[in-house]
Amino acid sequence: MAQQKDVTISVLKFNPRDKESHPKFVEYTLQETPGMTLFIALNKIRQEMDPDLAFDFVCRAGICGSCGMVVNGKPTLACRTLVANYPDRKLQLIPMPAFELIKDLSVNTGKWMDSMSNRVESWIVDNEKEIDITKIEEKMEPKVAEDIFELDRCVECGICVASCGTALMRPNFVGAVGLNRVARFQMDPRDKRTDEDFYDLVGDDDGIFGCMSLLACEDHCPKNLPLQNKIAYMRRKLVSVK
Ligand code: SF4
Ligand code: FES
After folding, report:
1. Which domain holds residue 160?
2. In this structure, are 142 and 235 located in the same domain?
3. Is the CB of 42 under 6 A from ligand 2?
4. Ligand 1 centroid to 132 CA: how many Å?
5. CA–CA dist 98, 171 (Å, integer)
6. Engineered SS bond to 15: which of 21, 26, 144, 190, CB 3.0-4.6 Å?
7. Residue 68 Cα, ligand 2 centroid: separation in angstroms?
8. Cα 241 to Cα 72, 193, 206, 227, distances in angstroms
9. pTM assigned to the model
10. Which atom of ligand 1 lies at the shortest distance from residue 158's CA?
11. Which of 107, 136, 154 is the last residue of a domain?
12. What are the tens digits of pLDDT across the range 134-186?
């Protein structure tokens, strides 16, 4: 039988609401089990070693987007991260930057996403004064629906934001997730906003012109969304708006 390996996980612990708390790394050692993910390892640590350790999980399947954290310097989803991906079995975990820290590895991505959604008006705007609820649903070309669905796969994990140099310097930058959202509504035929309307929303350095094209958002996005492609497309469209 293969010998089980020791896994060493070092976590930056800090509770910003506790005046006595100071940021410090705490190290835990546990034995690897077959197929062990970081989600499994952190739960084991919390159950057996440190009930005070805070981190977020819901689905355990890369769907809910709650378990983003920085592992050895790279933002990633913990439930999709195999411990075996790290040959020396040493993992250092810190919370994702750019978001409000709740405690230890838990950050408030929901608050950030809510504010971004309001900023980019993340809903269909059809400019109709009266809504006729008896109207039959309009058909959409399957290719257009597929293209929209491709961008709608975003799980709002915030990893693109935590990976982004601009987002770390500009707290109001809408990030690749926000620009992806704008691109999604721009291609939706039900949305009657013009390029000028989108320019008013994101035609500044906190929007489409803030991106420095460092590409870390796309490199790290767990859903492999075509973020740079969409940002470049929106930038080309909006740069010609007078
Ligand atoms: S674009 Fe990708 S990395 Fe960014 S929030 Fe959506 S799924 Fe996460
Ligand atoms: S727990 Fe839902 S994405 Fe990781």
Report:
1. 120-239
2. yes
3. no
4. 35
5. 7
6. 21
7. 8
8. 42, 13, 17, 22
9. 0.93
10. 5
11. 107
12. 988 889 999 999 999 999 999 999 999 999 999 999 999 999 999 999 999 99
Q: Tell whether 139 is covered by a domain.
A: yes
CB-based contact 238:199 (threshold 8 Å): yes
Residues with CB under 6 Å of ligand 1 are 154-160, 176-177, 180, 221-223, 225, 227
Ligand 2 atom at minimal distance to the Cα of residue 79: 4
pLDDT tens digits for range 187-219: 999 999 999 999 999 999 999 999 999 999 999
**Assigned token pair, 169:** 């310097």
B/e letters for 221-234, b = 16+ CB within 10 Å, e = fewer, are bbbebebbebbeeb
Provide the β-strand partners of residue 68: 77
Q: Which residue has the tokens 């020396």?
A: 88
Taking the CA atoms of the chain, what radius of gyration do you get in angstroms? Answer: 21
Residues 6+ apart with CB under 8 A from 203: 209, 238, 241
The atom number, within ligand 1, closest to the CA of 161 reads: 4
**62 in ligand 2 pocket by Cβ < 6 Å?**
yes
Q: How many A from CA of 192 to the centre of ligand 2?
A: 34
Structural domain count of the chain: 2
Angle at 116 between CA 180 and CA 39, to 5 degrees: 80
- For residue 65, give the ligand nearest its CA: 2
Do residues 76 and 147 both lie within one domain?
no
Q: Which of 208, 214, 210 has its CA nearest to residue 233?
A: 208
* CA 150 – CA 165 distance, rounded (Å): 25
